[in-house]
Amino acid sequence: MKADLLAIDPGFRYFGYGVFHEGSLLEGSLVKAPPVESPWAVWKKQPPSFLSLVDVIRKFEWSNPLAVIEYPKVHKDTPNPEAIVKLAAACGAYTGLLQAAGFDVTWVEPYTWKGNVPKEIFTRRILAKIPEADYPKVSNIKDHNILYAIGIGLWAIKKSRHRALSPVCGEIGLV
User: Where are the beta strands (DSSP E) in 111-173?
Assistant: First the structure.
């Protein structure tokens, strides 16, 4: 199946992703870290999820691939900045793997693509943008990680139609 856009809502132990082709959703799902028995599991207890990214890449035939990854931002009220540092490191690993596979990679900060809208409201907005006929393409329509990845993809599609995609664009996608 041909694809041209991969959107990622990152995590260290799991990540949500959305795959698109020519603006249409092909798949939305959640990837967990490989099993501890996996040859990838050099960490033995908690292998990082980015090692499973290779499986997602291999599922599709990529044409001029672009990946958009939400990059975390530490704020003064961030409850656990150390978790954000770990997440940022995972974003770097995703980026390296994707670039090695031939992807152009763009990072986008949460505020840029979704503003300050509360999670419950924003997930409903993303869900409203997905045609009901595409619901079967989403592995768990209630998982906010998957919906956020799809939302990032929809934001990227909207940006690419107006002008070159940049992680510092001022206009907010679905807000």
Answer: none
Q: What tokens were used for 2?
A: 């041909």
Contacts of 142 (CB under 8 A, 6+ apart): none
Q: What is the pLDDT of residue 44?
A: 53
The full length of the chain comes to: 175
Please identify which residue in the block is written with the tokens 């001029």: 64
Mean pLDDT of 151-167: 77
Q: Is the pLDDT of residue 174 over 50?
A: no
The answer to whether residues 48 and 10 touch, using CB atoms and an 8 Å cutoff, is no
Q: Which of 104, 113, 121 is nearest to 70 (CA)?
A: 113
**Residue given tokens 């693509």 in the structure block:** 113
Q: What are phi and psi of 22, to 5 degrees?
A: 50, 45
What's the rounded Cα separation, in Å, for the pair 8 and 71? 10
Which residue reads 């090695």 in tokens?
100
User: In angstroms, rounded to a whole number, what is the distance separating the alpha carbons of residues 76 and 93?
Assistant: 26
